[in-house]
Structures are given as structure tokens and as C-alpha cells.
Design goal:
8-stranded mixed sheet; about 50% helix
Length: about 425
């Protein structure tokens, strides 16, 4: 239903040029979002793969590709509009639909998150039932990915579908050591998904996310998707995960530092708890988020990891940040943390139980605002490095199955200690002093 609120929201997000291009499109079933910003080197094959997927799997549905551009000066919009269609797919399809493709500048924050918000607002205007978003610099996108993400939303009525990509054994520790087990324990739903830059969602969730409080601050790709996942879990929406092939992106000239990534991703996870309390505090256990598809295989050499540097930064951080950590952590946790740095074995003894208490006490300190939240997130970085180094060191000789079992054990510890988070969250001061 097109409410006055949604009309006002759309008018404040969509540029006049974008609206002008959308009006002839009319109502659609599926929107494909492709936010761009100087992606001339990679965007053409992405557009072609998307249209091939639509022609192959959705020949009778009304579809549109919307590419909000954040001010490219390399000709990206023209490449999007002129990218060749996958004629081999179109010839073999039964499509009777016009191929719609829209590319126009968008207003607001000129980054990918602003582009995603524009896609959501446009999908609301077009009354789309399903929305799928891709990154223009992805180099491994296949036409089948379009169907594998969209089908559960379009055909089965789900609200959010997230990708699972094969990874090297120790890739993505921020996800499997912190973000996923924290959100999974808080919202009582087991997660396996990646924050990979692509997902599918229902029109209902897109409309809700368009007015989400997260847009009141700068939002990057991973923090937006952290908030998206948390919103889906908090609202008890129908969320699923799907196995896709290896995920590869074109090399980026620059990227966020670990401290910036932490402030972004972990901050978004902590803020999701803040924004969705008290609901999650009294949440009953729920079934795991279902997984579709068959796991793919990732080939190629594993990345080289400097465990000694990680351990050194951890030890120095515990020492140098002692006054801050005393404000954040309970006395018992501080003592146990210092003991880890003095075992004579690096950080091999950084146990699951200690790590879970560290994360939960940081989350509670974020809630109680015991200090500037930027400083709080940065103080967690060396502790995370110590935990990651400990995990990798312990599992160096392990195979994929053993590592998966170890990650599951950590998730169980997060669940078993959930009462510690609730207790700290509801306490008066937030630190254990």
C-alpha cells in the first residue's frame, strides 16, 4: 500500500532524473540494483551477466536494472546503458518483456550505501516484489546467481536471501569469530552468510530499510549489510542463505584499515543490538536460518598470515590500553586477559569462554556509552587480533571439517553465555567495577 509516508520518503531520496527514467518502466516484479561509482573497468560484464540471468530464469516477469550512479567521471553510466545484451540467452528465451535499464545520478551520500537506498526507494515506487543487489566490481558473477538469490524471494515469499561463498580455511575471521556468532546468539538464529555485497530481499523489507535509522550516519557496504541482516533477524522475517560459487572482486586501489573496518562492521553489530532492544533480550530460541544449494569448492593458494605480528599487537594493546580496558571490562575479564599475554605461549590459550566474555562486555559498554564509541571499537581491535591469532595457531594443521567444528563450538559458547550479555546489558554501569 502506497502510504503518504512512503511517498514523502521516496521524493526525498530519488533524483528528478531518476524518476523521469522510472516513470515509463511502470510496475515491475523484480528490480536488480547495481550502484556504481567509477566502475568503467568492470561494470559491462556484470550488466551482461545480470541480463542473461533475467532472460534465462525470469522470461515472463517484468524486470528492470537500476544503476544509481554516485558521480562517476570515467563514463560508467554510458557503459551501463550501452552494455550488450546476452543475445544467446534472449534468442533461446520465451521473454515477451521489454528489457529495461536505468542509470542516473542519485542524491544524498555518494557512496554504495546511498546507491542501495536509492534502489530500495525506486523499488518501492515501482511496487517490486523482489529486489536483488550486486556490486559493479564483482568479477565472478554468473547468470545463475541472479536466480539463486531471487527465486527464494520471488517464488517462495522469503524476505531476505544472503550468499554463502567458499573461503580459504582462515579467511574472514571477523565474520566467524565475532559478527556471526554475536548476532546469532543475540537473535537466536544460526548464520553462515557472508557480507559480500550482494543479496536479495522482498519489497516489504526494502521499504522498511529505506527509512532505517542507519542512514542518519555514514554507511559503508559491510555496515549496511550487517544492519540489514540484523533487521531481518530482529523482525523474525523469513531469512535464508544460499551457496554460491567463489566470490572475487577486481583489485581495489585502497580499502579501509582494520580499525576503520572494525568501527564500521562491529559498530553496526553493536548498534543493531541497541536499536532492536528490548526485543532480542527476551527472544526465544528459533530454528537455524535455512541453507539452500550445494557448497562450492575454492581453489588456489591460501593467504599468508603473520601470526607473530598479530600476537605482538595483541600483547602491546593489552598493555597500552589498560586504562581503557578497565573502563570496559570486568575486573575478572581483565585479569584473565592479561594472563593470556603472559603464558609464554603467545596467545594460544585465548579460550572461547574468555573471548565471548570480552565481546559481550564490549557490546554492553557500547550500550552504556562508557566512552566514545569510536575509541571503544578501536580498543577491541588488538584483542580480536589476539583471538584470531590464537584460533589460527591452534588449527593450523586442521582440515576444513575440524575447523568448521571448532567454529560451531565457539557459536555454542556464545549461546551458552548469552545470559552474561543480558546481565551486563541490564546492569547500571556496564563495567564490572
Amino acid at each position: 500500500m502506497d502510504t503518504g509516508h512512503s511517498r514523502v520518503m521516496r521524493s526525498s531520496i530519488l533524483s528528478d532524473e531518476l524518476v523521469r527514467q522510472l516513470v515509463p518502466v511502470g510496475q515491475v516484479d523484480i528490480v536488480v540494483g547495481l550502484p556504481t561509482m567509477n566502475n568503467a573497468a568492470t561494470v559491462e560484464p556484470v550488466v551482461t551477466a545480470i541480463h542473461a540471468g533475467l532472460a534465462r530464469h525470469f522470461p515472463l516477469e517484468r524486470t528492470v536494472l537500476i544503476s544509481p550512479d554516485g558521480g562517476s567521471d570515467d563514463g560508467t553510466p554510458a557503459i551501463v546503458r550501452g552494455a550488450p545484451l546476452a543475445y544467446e540467452e534472449l534468442r533461446g528465451s520465451k521473454s515477451l518483456r521489454t528489457t529495461h535499464r536505468v542509470s542516473a545520478p542519485f542524491d544524498g551520500v555518494l557512496d554504495r550505501s546511498g546507491g542501495v537506498r536509492t534502489v530500495f526507494a525506486a523499488a518501492d515506487l515501482l511496487q517490486a516484489c523482489a529486489i536483488v543487489v550486486f556490486s559493479p566490481d564483482i568479477t565472478s558473477l554468473t547468470p545463475d546467481w541472479v536466480a539463486e538469490l531471487v527465486h527464494p524471494v520471488w517464488k517462495d515469499g522469503l524476505d531476505l536471501v544472503l550468499p554463502i561463498h567458499p573461503r580459504h580455511r582462515f579467511d574472514g575471521p571477523l565474520l566467524h569469530q565475532l559478527v556471526r556468532p554475536l548476532l546469532g546468539a543475540a537473535y537466536r538464529r544460526r548464520l553462515r552468510a557472508d557480507l559480500a555485497g550482494h543479496f536479495a530481499c522482498s519489497g516489504k523489507l526494502a521499504a522498511r530499510m529505506s527509512s532505517h535509522p542507519l542512514w542518519q550516519r555514514d554507511v559503508s557496504r559491510p555496515s549496511f549489510e550487517t544492519s540489514l541482516v540484523a533487521t531481518g533477524l530482529a523482525l523474525n522475517l523469513a531469512v535464508a542463505q544460499v551457496h554460491l560459487g567463489p566470490c572475487r572482486f577486481a583489485p581495489r586501489a585502497t580499502g579501509p584499515s582494520l580499525s576503520e573496518l572494525f568501527q564500521d562492521v562491529v559498530g553496526a553489530a553493536f548498534e543493531s543490538l541497541e536499536g532492536n532492544a528490548p526485543d532480542w533480550l527476551t527472544r526465544d530460541a528459533a530454528p537455524d536460518v535455512p541453507v539452500f544449494g550445494t557448497p562450492a569448492v575454492l581453489e588456489g593458494p591460501e593467504p599468508v598470515i603473520d601470526l607473530a605480528a598479530m600476537a605482538e599487537r595483541f600483547t602491546a594493546g593489552v598493555r597500552d590500553l589498560d586504562p581503557l580496558l578497565r573502563e570496559i571490562l570486568s575486573p575478572e575479564t581483565c585479569v584473565r586477559l592479561k594472563a593470556v599475554t603472559h603464558t609464554g605461549e603467545g596467545v594460544r590459550s585465548f579460550s572461547d569462554a574468555l573471548w565471548v566474555h570480552v565481546v559481550y562486555e564490549f557490546a554492553a559498554a557500547h550500550h552504556h556509552a562508557v566512552m566514545n564509541r569510536v575509541h571503544l571499537a578501536q580498543a577491541l581491535v588488538p584483542l580480536y587480533l589476539g583471538r584470531a591469532a590464537s584460533f589460527i595457531s591452534d588449527m593450523t594443521a586442521a582440515d576444513d571439517g575440524a575447523i568448521e567444528s571448532r567454529i560451531e563450538a565457539l557459536e555454542l559458547e556464545f549461546k551458552a553465555s548469552r545470559s552474561h550479555l543480558v546481565e551486563r546489558w541490564n546492569s547500571e554501569g556496564g563495567s564490572g567495577r
